[in-house]
Design goal:
The chain is of the alpha/beta class. It has eight helices and six strands; from the N terminus they run H-H-E-E-H-H-E-H-E-H-E-E-H-H. It has a single domain, classed as Uracil-DNA glycosylase-like domain (Uracil-DNA Glycosylase, subunit E, 3-Layer(aba) Sandwich), CATH 3.40.470.
Length: 224
């Protein structure tokens, strides 16, 4: 199995009818600013360097972000924040990710999500999460150089722990709890928590660029 083969399998997945409906409905009724655009409207894969030492893990694609562009954290404000931070930290060749043909490349970093389809109200069910986390397990096994993981939000933090459990990687006791700047050692990985780069955090000042940069600075040090 390779990341390319896994990506083909992910893109072809139609196991969660509610999520399939959400993706196609968003494409059929886009906001005026995206009217006439050809939506991806399928599950999305991870993106980045197959030899990455850093993984950035999010919740799921946005209905009019990744679900539109076909690339994780691409085409929305959350992506602007994330790739801006990756660029400042030296992982991305440019600060903006607008589409799959925008020239974005990542070096030593890989970006993925726990759930591959855009869920209604950004809220997957536990059944959808548990079904989809199996893809994350296989992705983690293929990213053999990983040393550090940044989990964006509590959902991604818990999803990574679920994947580690499935891989029979020992989880520290007590089980690590999510928080901004939280850290934990999970097997050979150093795991870092950050508030999600969603607008409800960035617009309110709950998450600032300085806070995000600090997490990535620590993750970069841990990945080398």
């Amino acid at each position: 199995m390779t990341l390319e083969k896994l990506s083909e399998e992910i893109i072809g997945c139609r196991k969660c009818k509610r999520l399939v409906k959400c993706c196609t409905r968003a494409a059929a009724d886009p906001p005026k600013r995206y009217a006439g655009q050809d939506y991806w409207a399928k599950p999305i894969t991870g993106f980045g360097d197959p030899k990455a030492r850093l993984l950035v893990l999010g919740l799921a694609p946005a209905a009019h972000g990744g679900n539109r562009t076909g690339r994780v954290f691409t085409g929305d404000r959350s992506g602007d924040w994330l790739y801006g931070a990756l660029h400042r930290a030296g992982f991305a060749n440019q600060p903006e990710s607008t589409g799959r043909d925008d020239g974005m490349t990542l070096t030593d970093a890989y970006v993925s999500v726990v759930v591959r389809c855009a869920p209604p109200d950004n809220t997957p069910t536990t059944t959808e999460r548990d079904r989809c986390v199996k893809y994350l397990v296989r992705e983690l096994a293929l990213l053999t150089e990983l040393r550090a993981i940044v989990a964006l939000g509590g959902f991604a933090w818990d999803g990574l722990l679920l994947a580690a459990d499935a891989m029979e990687i020992a989880i520290p006791k007590p089980r690590p709890k999510f928080g901004h700047a939280a850290q934990a050692t999970i097997g050979s990985w150093q795991m870092f928590g950050s508030y999600h780069v969603s607008q409800q955090n960035t617009f309110t000042g709950r998450l600032t660029e300085a806070m995000l940069d600090d997490v990535f600075s620590k993750a970069r040090a841990a990945s080398h």
